[in-house]
Amino acid sequence: MNTPAGFEMKHGKMVNVQPFEAMFNASFLVRAFHVVATAGMTMAFLLAAIAAFKLLKNKFSKDAEYHKKALKMTMIVGFINTLLAMLAGDMSAKFLHKVQPEKLAAYEWHFDTQSKADLVFFGVLNDKTQEVHGAIKIPGMLSFLADNNVNTKVKGLNDFPKNDLPPLIVHYFFDLMVSMGIFCFIVSGLFILTLIFKKLRKFTLNKGLLYAVLLTGPASLLAIEFGWFLTEMGRQPWIVRGYMRVSQAATQAGGITLVTIMFGLLYLVLLVTSAYVLLRMFKNKPAQDDVDKVIEKGGQA
Ligand code: HEM
Description:
Layout: E1 8-10, E2 13-15, H1 19-23, H2 28-57, H3 64-99, H4 101-107, E3 119-121, E4 124-126, E5 131-133, E6 136-138, H5 141-147, H6 170-196, H7 207-233, E7 238-240, E8 244-245, H8 246-249, H9 256-282, H10 287-296
Antiparallel strand pairs: 1-2, 3-6, 4-5, 7-8
């Protein structure tokens, strides 16, 4: 939808469709890299959050050793994936600069084409004057993000047709996603420092650090949602960029409200039943019991 490929348009119809070309289109590699790295990161931090929660509840339970090991492993995996996610995020921004420049400009509220373009963090936009108030601005950083060079010219929103521009609220989703990434990077980085340096080891199970680890789970999950919001809202007004607008694709069929409610109910049932099954499986069954069983059988813990 963002970088359509693998078809030809003839008289308003899609012909000569090549599914593999469509799938492995120009943005496939960079997007797949970012999504896989952020999924790995989220999985690690969610598991770390569970371990931190258990340790905050009771550091001396039968399960404590198990959760300490889990915490170490998930923090290391989370940190590595966060680094990869950041690298992939940087590649995504460079890709947008070349292929979807209007999207990058919308993320950054960048109105005038210029070199040494600033990276704008949060702030409030005055639509009429195109002025941004209360933002943290990093001079030249948008040019650098776009092309590793502060002198690179970044195309501004004023140089695109007005009715081809995405909604400017995407700016906040971008900033929130990046903030969550930086937060997870700092927390897992600090945790790893406590593992590396003997003098810092007493802080590994520090309450404040465990609370911060607890937050990395929801933070990375939220970052995934912000990422999807920004990427899909960022391709508006197109459903297939350059070919079909969302307004042309929106269905006129009736019964949509009913289907939406039914889907909502289905997900609610799935949520309740899976929560029930998971609680039954894990309640009052210390994880250490499983480890002991493996050891009894002669395996490694
Ligand atoms: C910290 C630095 C990060 C940077 C520089 C960054 C950059 C980007 C960019 C430029 C896009 C837009 C791609 C597009 O519109 O085509 C994007 C999308 C996305 N981001 Fe991030 N991101 C970062 C962190 C994260 C984190 C921490 C997560 C989640 C844990 C995340 C999840 C996503 C998702 C799910 C998407 C949509 C998928 C896609 O089309 O690429 N990002 N990111």
